[in-house]
Amino acid sequence: MSSKLHIILKTVTILIVTVFFSCKDNYNNVVQLNKISSEAAGIAENINLKHTDSGKVKIHLISKKMMDFSNKEFSYTTFPDGLKVVFYGDQKEKTTVTSDYAILYNKTDLIDLRGNVKIVTHDGKILTAEQLYYDQKEKWLFTNSEYKYEAEDGGYNIGKGGFDANQDFTIFSSLDNDGQQYIKD
């Protein structure tokens, strides 16, 4: 009876060891797949991109690094070292946007700008914030963080509770703010 028990124990031990090592091998494969899936699909450095329409430069993007995560289910692109984007109007007027970091969510066309965000419009308006979102579809800016808005006429608005505005700042809603506005007669 003991020899049968001994053979059964050896068989069970061999099965357990086999299962353990095959699981470990599968575990290593899963870890490797997760590592690969967390990596960027593409990385670009020293970007100097100009978008033209009808022979005219409309957008000029400059960034040290861009990481493309289009391999994700909810794809996005990051600019981990910041960016500078210049938008040109039909009369060559320009609006400049800068930030220390940016994420573009491809499916929603939402841009998340972070760190020293600054927008300088072609007509002299300046907006600064630590974080600012831009909805490309709706052409709408918003934030829940502190910001400062300076108008071309010297008026200003400093807000603590965030704001919403269209991209031209002709519609502007602010929460919990102080400022000075000049109104024409």
Write structural notes for this entry.
The chain is an alpha+beta fold and 185 residues long. The chain has two domains: 1-38; 40-180, lipopolysaccharide transport protein A fold (Sandwich). Helix content is 20%, strand content 49%. It has one helix and 14 strands. The protein has a six-stranded antiparallel barrel. The N and C termini lie far apart (109 Å). The model has no long low-confidence stretch (mean pLDDT 82).
Briefly note the structural class of the backbone.
alpha+beta
**Number of domain units:** 2
The end-to-end distance, rounded to whole angstroms, is: 109 Å
Assembly type of the chains comes to single chain
CATH superfamily of the largest domain: Lipopolysaccharide (LPS) transport protein A like domain
Average pLDDT taken over every residue = 82
Helix and strand run: HEEEEEEEEEEEEEE
Tell me, what's the shape? Answer: extended
Number of strands: 14
Task: Quickly describe the structure.
It is built from one helix and 14 strands; from the N terminus they run H-E-E-E-E-E-E-E-E-E-E-E-E-E-E.
List keywords for this structure.
2 domains; lipopolysaccharide transport protein A fold; 49% strand; extended; alpha+beta
SSE inventory with pairings:
Blueprint: H1 2-38, E1 42-53, E2 56-69, E3 76-79, E4 83-88, E5 94-99, E6 101-105, E7 110-120, E8 126-135, E9 140-143, E10 147-150, E11 156-159, E12 163-166, E13 172-174, E14 177-180
